[in-house]
Known about the structure:
By secondary structure, the chain is mainly β. 8% of the residues lie in helices and 55% in strands. The radius of gyration is 22 Å and the shape is globular.
Amino acid sequence: MKFLFTVLFLLFLQFFYAQDEEYVYANGVFQFEENKTQKIFTDWTRVRQEPNVNSQILDSLPTNQQILILKKEESILKLGERRANWYKVSYQKGEKVSEGYVWGGNLCVGYRNKNGFDFLFGLTKTVNKKDRQFPDIISSQNIASIKLVEGNTLVDEVSFDTGSGESLSYATFTIESNHKLQNVELTLNAMVSGEACGIPSYTQYVLFKDKKLIALPQLMNVGDADVFYHSEEFIFPNDKDGIPNSFIFKMEEMEKDERDREKKKKASKTYLWDGNSYKLK
């Protein structure tokens, strides 16, 4: 009986410290530099007197509000698969400059400005859904979105998956050319990555035309040293082997068997673009 109690006690400690360790480390995409400007992603983000959810609410800030990061706090809040530090920030409304604390998960992961429009990239929530790699498994998946903002007005928004918290080590958000697709003003590229073997990275292309955002099928890449990899990419009209008014999806996969022999699979499909929407050829 004493042995049983000892085992149960050790299991309890292991569970406790595992939970505590999970709480300690924030997702890398929510690491923001002090003394640098940032933008609010979640509309009406609460500004609190202290860095915790029970603290007094001082104010709320709209999407696209610019703030200055003053200090990163040690305290971390976890909501779903999103784990982020609290930040002390300052911001200006009219003539008044104020300070307070905001949760890092409510800030933009990336933002860009082009032709008078602001494009904001951020994480919105966590949902339970089928895993893309293992369809029989239900797992927690983060949902991200890109917002199109003109002045203080949200014009359009598209949402997409970004995998589990393991895939949020770092992110990029860039504006590319129109890839010579008819009527497209520019393309946006949002990417998140796990930066480790076996952890997928997700790339989302979004087309911008006539104040509308059009999300293309999502790309996923993952690899495990030299044993396995799965890669996906788009070939646009201005790329080598590109086709006018279309884009090509290409997939390549390699896996080594027990005798260290490579087995490769390749696939491709073409999407036709008519200047307003796309469809599978």
